[in-house]
Design goal:
binds protoporphyrin IX containing FE, GlbO/GLB3-like, about 55% helix, single chain, about 150 residues, mainly alpha, Globin-like
């Protein structure tokens, strides 16, 4: 029995992510970060990721490859404010899904640590990572082959 099975499988993660994105859609800081107007595909990716992480089918990996989540978030301006908003919406979602206290605490602990790890700037909007800020990883020059350090 995996954590995924214990909490009720994919439908539970679908509900969690649906509530989360319902809140993101109303968030003036987070909503504009999403490249697509329709949050449906983003919700689908997050659902498959969480399903895989907690022991369900590995569809995420088959479709998206290695998660490399910090790398994938580099284009977005994730400062402590964005992190706290993300976590607030996840908290709302977790409260609505109503898991057992142990499952809830386990999931929350993970989400909190993951969100803290995703912070990539402490600069005000426009100065840190992102289209208006410093170049994203893809645009950075490859290290010199003569580099010795
Ligand atoms: C801390 C604040 C965070 C912000 C502001 C944020 C924002 C975003 C944005 C704007 C996207 C692109 C939407 C898309 O096209 O999929 C994205 C993708 C994604 N995020 Fe986050 N995120 C945060 C934290 C997290 C955390 C903690 C996790 C995991 C627990 C996570 C998991 C994902 C996944 C799986 C994707 C799709 C990656 C892919 O396959 O392309 N995010 N996020």
């Amino acid at each position: 029995m995996t954590f995924y099975d214990e909490v009720g499988g994919r439908p539970t993660f679908e509900r969690l992510v649906a509530v989360f994105y319902r809140e993101v859609a109303l968030d003036p800081v987070l909503k504009p970060m999403y490249p697509e107007e329709d949050l449906g595909p983003a919700a689908e990716r997050l659902t498959w990721f969480l399903v895989q992480y907690w022991g369900g089918p590995t569809t995420y990996g088959e479709q998206r490859g290695h998660p490399r989540l910090r790398m994938r978030h580099v284009p977005f301006h994730i400062d402590p404010d964005a992190r706290d908003r993300w976590l607030r919406h996840m908290r709302t979602a977790l409260d609505e899904v109503q898991l057992s206290p142990l499952h809830e605490a386990t999931l929350w602990d993970y989400l909190e640590r993951a969100a803290y790890a995703m912070v990539n700037t402490f600069e005000p909007s426009g100065i840190g990572a992102g289209p208006q800020g410093r170049p994203t990883l893809e645009h950075r020059a490859a290290p010199e082959s003569t580099e010795t350090t």
